[in-house]
Amino acid sequence: MDNRAANLSGSATAKSIDALVTPTLLLDRGRLGRNIQRLAERAKKLGVVLRPHMKTAKSIDVACDVFPQGPGPITVSTVAEAAYFADHGFRDITYAVGISPASARRAMELCRRTGADVKLLLDCVDQADALARVREATGMTPSVLIELDCDYHRGGLRQDDPRLLDVANRVVAAGAKLVGVLAHAGESYGLNTPNALVKAAENERSAAVRAAEILRAYGHACPVVSVGSTPTAHFAQNLEGVTELRAGVYMFFDLVQHGVGVCDRDDLAISVLATVIGSKPENGWVLVDAGWMALSRDRGTANQQIDQGYGVVCDEKGRVLEDVIVAQASQEHGILSIRAGSGKSMPEMPLGSRVRILPNHACAMAAQHDFYSVVNGDSPKIETRWERMRGW
Amino acid sequence: MDNRAANLSGSATAKSIDALVTPTLLLDRGRLGRNIQRLAERAKKLGVVLRPHMKTAKSIDVACDVFPQGPGPITVSTVAEAAYFADHGFRDITYAVGISPASARRAMELCRRTGADVKLLLDCVDQADALARVREATGMTPSVLIELDCDYHRGGLRQDDPRLLDVANRVVAAGAKLVGVLAHAGESYGLNTPNALVKAAENERSAAVRAAEILRAYGHACPVVSVGSTPTAHFAQNLEGVTELRAGVYMFFDLVQHGVGVCDRDDLAISVLATVIGSKPENGWVLVDAGWMALSRDRGTANQQIDQGYGVVCDEKGRVLEDVIVAQASQEHGILSIRAGSGKSMPEMPLGSRVRILPNHACAMAAQHDFYSVVNGDSPKIETRWERMRGW
User: Pairing with A84, which of A191, A283, A293, B341 sits 20 to 30 Å away (CA)?
Assistant: First the structure.
């Protein structure tokens, strides 16, 4: 596959992480490859198509590592992502956020322009009715998935909600094409035992399969039965009746997923490289130049068994400094300190020395940056630079 | 002043907010002007120079509204900000984050290239010593401020710390120019009564003035005595001995500042425009297309008397919908609901209708966006589009 983005971004020609301006985002390509392979193998064993969610990586280069044979089916979270990946050759795209009339129209204009098939998500009759006007305005026939709510997480209909059939009928009446149902076990992020995760995956599966059965009983073919979240994708025991699996954060993993029990800390593929700019020995503090602007304000581990502050601190080579976390963050300052109660003391961190900080939430940390400096393991060598897209 | 950034950003030619792709950032220029004027008048009355912090707005166009007569003294939080404003004609810049040897060198290279005077901040002898090498490498003599810690907030030295004099002497020994001291009452964000804010401002003032007196007693001229935070800047009763005042979020204000007691909700100048994409009447939820990617993960009001969730919801014209907040946020979904315990019920919000969401923290919300659509009051008209800079 040869449609990677050109890496021509000005003076960004650092060959070693030592030459990088900090704070900046690193991506370990070895770990990325391992994470990609792990879920690809699971999907194969479970007999489903993997439809990776690109909202975490937002990078054509990462997508090329996921699909070394050429573009495959993907999931996106914005119309801008759909356009970016369509412009890089992807054709089978699921836009997994409920539509407004305006976003549906933009998506169909994109399909007309690029030849991509962007599948739309909805869960109410108003959205279905709006598709008639979208079809008229764009001349395109939308493909539609009905959003299910398997765990009372956010949007979507319960599988046994009588409105499910109303919505399906109105999609057809609007002249759109009903292609299936989609469930996302968002509540699985709050779990932390294998048993609970296996149960959540089975609940997600059975809800989606049941909804498809109901629709089929009333004459809707419903070929697509789509499920997924990073935790349930890694704990599903069987996916009978499911046709495709979605996940996004699995490519990078993060401390939240580690707390859920889906990955080891050594699987985390991104980190922020930061420089020591001061210390306050009397408080046990070391100050670095990565604050929430570089790390994000995400505190997703705050409610887990181990609160990781604004992230776990590693040395410059990526080796975890046990119990050293980013305890506080302001816009461009991070305060490193020892986790309360650990009994350890802060390691020596002289002015100008560097650390890598692991993310609470990979999607949020990565979103604060415009590019990845791609490294491998503990080598300081920068293999390449990959740009990220952003916006809506 | 005529060095505004060219507004040539592709297809972004919307004339009305109705035509904007959501989620997107709005800036009310009338409110911006009022906020700018309010602090400019205070600084004048207090007899100090105002040195606005550009880390909130990160926009040359906002800077032009702050300085209609041409570039004045500014504060920045990254070397990239310093470079951006220097390239737009600003010369008197304070980089108000403690230096590493690498960032000091970049700042001095910027001074050499542009002729700007970028003042550096430090609080330890290792930083001071590093300046000798920076001077050697760049041929530039750094101007230096010593960071004070007036309220045990982050970095800096206490005004009575004996290291203050050591650091000052080492700055001089390194061949750099000691220009003064700088204090930031960061803990004032946690206050919420006028009395406490007045006291915090006086504490910030007296710490900075005392430090300058000590340095002068030992032969350091210390011409600059710099203080500031948005809350203390608005509550200082006198600034005797202080030469300059810094603040940044005052241009936009936000719900955190409203909770502290510095502004009214009607002063908030930025908001995210979002579109309704669904509802869950059984939960009292309305779903919009603004999640944490558009709003930021900032939950700065969580510890205030009134927790505003991920932001306060207004109608499309910017009128607050009382007790409607963004109760939950995922990457591209916001869940609107009534504040717990208010007894109200959710107003009607049909699919496709639009709302404006006020920020917990203006710096964090704005950082999620690449441009401002500039509006005025409740008019849907877009007056212009202003780009933001980002990165380090």
Answer: A293
